[in-house]
Amino acid sequence: MLEILTPDEMADADRLTIAGGVPGRDLMEAAGRAIADRAAAMAEQGASVLVLAGPGNNGGDGFVAARLLAGQGVTVRVALLGKREALTGDAALAAADYDGPVEPLTAETRLDAALVIDALFGAGLARPLAGSVAALVNRLNETEIPVLAVDLPSGIDGRTGVVCGAAIRARETVTFFRSKPGHFLMPGRAHCGVVTLAQIGIAEVVLETVKPALFDNQPDLWRAAFPHLEAAGHKYDRGHALIVCGPATRTGAARLAARGALRIGAGLVTIASPPEALLVNAAHLTAIMIARMDGAEGLARILEDRRFTALAIGPAAGLGEDTRNAVAACLESHAAVVLDADALTSFADRPESLWQLITARQAPALLTPHEGEFARVFPDIGALSRHEEDAGEGTQMSKVERARAAAESAGCAIILKGADTVVAMPDGRASICSHAPPYLATAGSGDVLTGIAAGLLAQRVPLFEAACAAVWLHADAARRFGPGLIAEDLPDQLPAVIKNTIIGNFF
């Protein structure tokens, strides 16, 4: 289930389901049953459970779970935020069906249970936790009591993943129908623990009305677009990628990108090398070719060969006018272009001129910034990139929203890198990848990603699918290698990753 629903979209799914004849009480009963089942699996037989119930439907889910667990002989306590008589709608009905003890939730609520169910607030929370609730959350986080969160750990903004004042650190989370952005975006993802997706009676048909445009970046999202080799195929059928190299003392980044492009399946890969770097590159390369590049004019002459189907420029290219001119030569070509690192930072004081070059072309363009580079070329959007502890009430843009705004502004695709890498398109389509391991935090790994993306675009994979596939395969290569990873290891993991992820599904 690849779709990710924002809190507003999830509310629409609930509303459409209820309007279609499914009572809201039935949805709450199913949600509470899923919570109780997971709680029973987490807690040892005879263990006590404390349910922290909020004043809304999340609290109602908690009351259902409390009733079902008590019916199984589990010792249950419910601590309610607010008064029982103040509950309304389905939550009030769920509370009325529970005949066990209910105590007021305070900063000093006893935390003497073997398991805590966090049913305070769900994914729709957009205001900071404060007062007694924040104090209790902080106390709970200081204990070793496992927490099962309902929908999303309380204190996490479901839209942005930001911590609102304070937030529960859960061992597991149960959410419903579809995952929410806060399950994927940092730091929310780190607070969720293991996430279980439960189906509670919401029909798939509601997605036709909700029309989500955000997806979990998994192979099912892009596998059908992955290049499929033909028995009579030729190397030029698989595309020709060109990687632009920097000066002699900084050639490694281009070679990393080139190996990524070649390993992902490009039929040919050439490095466009400054004259002073030719011998350095020649000493390191075998299957990857080298073309002499005398500045931007020389690059333009190389690109007159229309057999080049994708280009990448930026990794260790150098900062300044020479790189800007080389970027312009790339963007004036017929090929797909990937811009990274120095190709972006060189335009930090004049990003509009870069966007003009991009929007004037017909071929695909992809930017692959990390957060620092993003802030340099999108200063108005990048200024909103911080994961603040005290986020304003719904005012902060999420990483997805920032990437989408940047893609629309630049007129091209964006890979906004990080532990929660986002791919965004100008038309609003976006994905989040939660597959990346921490091993990728090593020098040069982004250069390999640039090459992988260029290699897929060289094979004429559609832009969104190429960007998403590059991100996931890059992450899976790092997972496959494990601890001790350096960037040079990534390309050599790609054949096994492709075999396991792609080829096994075709043959």
Fold and architecture overview:
- By secondary structure, the chain is of the alpha/beta class.
- It has two domains: 206 residues, YjeF N-terminal domain (Rossmann fold); 255 residues, Ribokinase (UDP-N-acetylmuramoyl-L-alanine:D-glutamate ligase), CATH 3.40.1190.
- Helix content is 40%, strand content 14%.
- Strands 8-17-16-15-14-13-12-9-10-11 form a ten-stranded mixed β-sheet, with helices on both faces. Strands 3-2-1-4-5-6-7 form a seven-stranded parallel β-sheet, with helices on one face.
- Strand 10, helix 10 and strand 11 form a beta-alpha-beta unit.
- Helix 9 runs parallel beside helix 20 and helix 11 runs parallel beside helix 12.
- The longest helix is centred in the first third of the chain and has 19 residues.
- The chain is elongated, with a radius of gyration of 26 Å.
